[in-house]
Known about the structure:
Largest sheet: 8 strands, parallel
Strand order of the largest sheet: 1-8-7-6-5-4-3-2
Radius of gyration: 16 Å
Low-confidence stretches: none
Bound molecules: zinc ion
Structural class: alpha/beta
CATH architecture: Alpha-Beta Barrel
Number of domains: 1
Strand content: 15-25%
Helix content: 25-40%
CATH topology: TIM Barrel
Amino acid sequence: MTIIAPSILSADFTRLGEEIAACEAAGADWIHIDVMDGHFVPNLTMGPFIVEACRRATRLPLDVHLMVERPENLFEAFARAGATRLTVHVETCPDLAGTLQAIAALGCKPGVTLNPATPAAALLPAIPLTDLVLVMTVQPGYAGQTFMADLLPKVGQVKRMLEAAGSSAWLEVDGGISAANIRQVQEAGANAFVSAQAIFKHPQGIAAGIQALRAALL
Ligand code: ZN
């Protein structure tokens, strides 16, 4: 199974419910929510209020990516708002295993991610405990950045780490994914794909954006 997860970072927030409904109708699998705190990354985006609004707009799983310092302070609020998945950055988690266990204890599926410059080995303590590994293919912070193809070997490296550990965790990628590069990312080992601009800013609309991504996959 291959997951398409539209990131609402590029949605029209005056029409958020309609745009999420359009994603669902077009066959999106998860809705990806990029939470940025203005500290861990310079941009400031959305919090539990928006997750709660998304929860009322769709039945799809809500894939919440926490680009925030001290993420553990927010787990309960996001879980209560209806988050399905909570993904943390290894750079923000001195006790990564404990953090992932805290997410699972709230009934959410734990995920872990890392910045482009952080080596894949930083994920090792998380692998037995995580349901998802997210490889960033841009520097986190803004939508509309160019996909960094030099991170493809890292996707392959994470895939081999998951296989070696017998893990069935999702291998997700986030950052500049488009119909032009999604196939090579899939071939590198990913099976879940976040995309913001290629879906919400597609000239023919959201459904065409999702269809173009699917058509480019194996
Ligand atoms: Zn994200």
